[in-house]
Amino acid sequence: MKINFTKKQYKQLLDLVYLGEWTANSSKDSDERYTEYDALFEYVCSFAKDFGVENLVPFDKGLDAHFPTQEYEQQLQPIIDDNDNEVFWQELSSRLAKRDLVKEGKTYATQDETMLKFFEVQGEYEKEFEDNGLSNLELRKQD
Question: For a designed S-S bond to 56, which of 21, 64, 72, 77 qualifies (C-beta 3.0 to 4.6 A apart)?
Fold first, then answer.
C-alpha cells in the first residue's frame, strides 16, 4: 500500500506522531518505553528530508536516529500544555467524585443511577474548580 501526502499533510502527520509518541513515552523510564512507538516515530521522521522539513527532526549519524529540535518541540508544547491542563482538572474532579461516592457508601439500584450520581458530584467539583481553581482545596491530616 502506498499513501501520498502533501508537504502540509506530512508536517501534520509528523506533529501527530510526535505528540502521540510523547504522550506514550514521556513519563516512562527507558526500559519501560513503548519501543514500537519509538520505531514508528523514527520511520515517519525518515521521510522528513523528502518533504523538506529535515530541520525539524534532523538525523544524528552517531546515534543513528532522528531527534526533534528544541524549536520544533517548543512549537508543539502549547498543545501538550493544553492537554495536560485539561486532563489535570478532569482527573481531579473525577477522582474526588469517586472518592466521595465510596465514602458515602450508598448503593444505587442501577448502574445508570450510580453514573448519574457520579456525574452530579463530578460536576460540582468541576464548577468549583472552574470558579475558584485550587484556592478552596485543602488537605487535612487525619488524627
Answer: 72
